[in-house]
Design brief:
Layout (H helix, E strand, L loop, with lengths): L23 E12 L2 E12 L3 E5 L6 H8 L7 E6 L2 E2 L4 H5 L2 E4 L11 H11 L4 H14 L15 H13 L5 E5 L7 H16 L3 E5 L3 H7 L2 E6 L2 E7 H5 L4 H9 L9 H9 L1
Parallel strand pairs: 3-8, 3-9, 6-7, 7-8
Antiparallel strand pairs: 1-2, 1-4, 4-5, 9-10
The structure holds adenosine-5'-triphosphate.
């Protein structure tokens, strides 16, 4: 009897992807992910150069979170490979994950711990000794402007404070690569500037940062490299200057992705506001 379940892979044969680049911090090859009928990531190849500050941008539903989840060991690809500094993530997950710090989308934290306890827990879980954990916990609380709330339960943190403590948890083991899904969402401008400074210094010291963001201006100013993705594909990737050319990144993004609507829509909304 044949299996009635359709295969979750590509509908048509695809050319074999080139091997992963071992010199890249992250090297994605032929990544596919399908949820039922929905193909979220459709054969993605992407190299994140070591020491780059890499922005991943794309419209809602482009496949950013799905591809970052597969690139960090949170979601198993249907097909494809992920190299982390040359280590095959899905073949050697412990080795590869030890070098990764991850801020996932919609992160669920152990929120019945205080901020200080959560960082301590994250550090011990990563195998650091107690003295190192204590020192780094203090440094991170100060860097994220959370010292005054160190003994507040995370469940009582605001959205921005939660984001900051999650980011600190991702950094406590000094990973070689930081993968951050929307790290600045809900974070106040002063904290965002502090976090940007921390990330820039980390990259200057040889670390690699991958951020997904919808804020083109921020990506253009902050990142050295960018990939524009839509429909689960990479539309353009390279240095920010090479990708945007003579345009702003935002204009280049809109040109590539399309989807601008003429503004005649929702006429009922305008007439309703005029008549009230
Ligand atoms: N668990 C899931 N089950 C079903 N469909 C999913 C699931 N996760 C993602 N999808 C679908 O896959 C596509 C890609 O989603 P994904 O979250 O990766 O996009 P994104 O680029 O991160 O979007 P956004 O910018 O809105 O956060 C979307 O169409 C989404 O509906």
């Amino acid at each position: 009897m044949t299996d009635p379940t359709p295969s979750p892979g590509p509908a048509e044969p695809v050319p074999a992807a080139p091997p992963p680049d071992p010199s890249a911090a992250l090297s994605l090859r032929g990544l596919w992910k399908r949820f039922g009928e929905k193909v979220a990531v459709a054969g993605m190849d992407l190299d994140v150069p070591t020491g780059s500050f890499f922005g991943l941008v794309g419209p809602n539903g482009a496949g950013k979170t799905t591809s970052l989840s597969m690139a960090t060991g949170l979601l198993r690809p249907d097909f494809g490979t992920v190299g982390v500094h040359g280590t095959d993530l899905w073949a050697h997950p412990d080795e590869a994950k030890a070098t990764l710090g991850v801020l996932p989308d919609g992160v669920r934290l152990f929120d019945r711990l205080t901020g200080a306890q959560l960082l301590t827990y994250a550090g011990l879980l990563r195998g650091l000794d107690r003295a190192t954990v204590a020192e780094r916990t203090e440094d991170l609380l100060a860097a994220m402007d959370l010292v005054a709330d160190r003994d507040t339960f995370v469940v009582d943190y605001s959205a921005g404070m939660t984001k900051k403590v999650a980011l600190a948890s991702a950094m406590i083991h000094a990973p070689r690569v930081l993968v951050l899904d929307e790290p600045f969402e809900a974070v106040d401008p002063v904290s965002a500037a502090n976090i940007r400074d921390i990330l820039r210094a980390y990259v200057a010291d040889g670390g690699t940062v991958v951020v997904s963001s919808h804020v083109m201006d921020l990506v253009q100013r902050m990142c050295s490299h960018v990939a524009i993705i839509a429909g689960g594909h990479v539309l353009a990737a390279g240095t920010v200057d090479a990708v945007r050319g003579e345009q702003t990144l935002e204009d280049r993004f809109v040109d590539l992705v399309g989807g601008r609507r003429e503004s005649e829509g929702l006429a009922w909304l305008r007439s309703s506001s005029a008549s009230s």
